[in-house]
Every structure is written in structure tokens, then in C-alpha cells.
Amino acid sequence: MDFDERLDNLEVEATSPDKQITARMRDRSHTEIVFEPYTYHHYNDAALARQLVHVMRLVWARYEQDFQELVDAEFGNPPRDDAPAPEHRAYHDRLAEVVAKGASPDGLVQLTSRALHEWTVELADDTVSRTPESTFLRSFDAALHQLLYRHRLKVLALKDEMYGLGLPFAVRLADEEER
């Protein structure tokens, strides 16, 4: 299997601290949340949000770790002695501050992430008590897709700003619109 195929097939999984929620991610754009049977309605909104924050943090960290291991195995580890060029350091500093938000169309789920490392999950009042599990999962997925789309736009806009890529005006405008 070549490098591109290994990246395309990269899948990771993480479990919430209470062991009732599993997040599965593949290729940085497909994330699936799965509840253990008969557990969704045992949560209240705050407890569910807390568990989702933890599982999202874990699955993204695991994905980045496995991704970096694949890259290192393919291309070798870069020398760590040399200090990065100032523009690269500035880019990585700003990348670590990228904040993106996503919301489900029905208003049940709002997500915020800083650099895909720190997560906030907000649920509308009484989400668990009035929403079937399948509906909640669709809402979470919609909010996550919107967040990831906005994150990608912000990263592209940052690369364009820092490295002068000459990206279309619409990409920069979309980034500014979400700020």
C-alpha cells in the first residue's frame, strides 16, 4: 500500500472517560460518534457535553499522533536541532490560535474548537430529554462538519496571508465572515 493509501485509510478511535461514547475518525473529515446501547438517555445535557468534549479532544490527538507517525515513517524525522524559520514559527503560533465554530441547523448542537485541540460543546436546553439519539447524532454530525469546513477555510486563509498563495477572494472572505 502506498503512502497516499495509508493516509486515506488512517482510522483512529477514542472512548469517552465514562466509556459510554466512542468517536471514530478517518481521513480527518469523517467522524462518527457511537453510544453504547441504552446509554444516551441516561445523560443530562451537561454530562453529555462534558463527555463529548473529552472524546473529541482524544480522537483528534490520536489522529494527529498516528498521522505524524505515518509521515515520519515515510519521510523520516526532521532534524529537531535547527530552529524553524521565523515565518514558520509565526505560522504555527497563529495556527494554534485558529478558532472555528459549527452549529447544527436545528440549533441543538453548537461546537467551538481552538486548533482542533480544545473543544466546547453546547447543547440546547433539554436536548437529551426531547431528542431521539439518531436525531442528536445527525445534529452533532452537521455541527462538526460545519466546524471542520470553517477550520479548513481559516487555515487556508492563514496560509494565503502568511505565504502569499494567491487564493481566491471568496476563501478569504469566508474566513473573515466567520470571525
Short description:
The mean pLDDT is 89. The protein is α+β, with helices and mostly antiparallel strands and 179 residues long.
Would you kindly provide a written description of the structure presented here, covering whatever features stand out?
It is a single chain. The chain is globular and about 55 Å long. Strands 1-2-3 form a 3-stranded antiparallel beta sheet. The protein has a 3-stranded antiparallel beta sheet with strand order 4-5-6. A hairpin with a 5-residue loop joins strand 1 and strand 2. The chain is 51% helix and 19% strand. It has helices at residues 3-8, 45-75, 86-95, 127-130, 133-163, 169-178, and strands at 11-15, 21-26, 30-35, 99-103, 109-114, 118-123. With 179 residues, it is an alpha+beta fold. The model has no long low-confidence stretch (mean pLDDT 89). It has one domain (3-77, 85-178): Nucleoid-associated protein YbaB-like domain (Ybab, Chain: A).
Helix content: 40-55%
- Name of the CATH architecture: 2-Layer Sandwich
* Total number of beta strands: 6
Within the largest sheet, what's the order of strands? 1-2-3
Distance between the ends: 41 Å
Query: Can you summarize the main beta sheet?
Result: 3 strands, antiparallel
Poorly predicted segments: none
Secondary structure: elements and pairs:
Blueprint: H1 3-8, E1 11-15, E2 21-26, E3 30-35, H2 45-75, H3 86-95, E4 99-103, E5 109-114, E6 118-123, H4 127-130, H5 133-163, H6 169-178
Antiparallel strand pairs: 1-2, 2-3, 4-5, 5-6
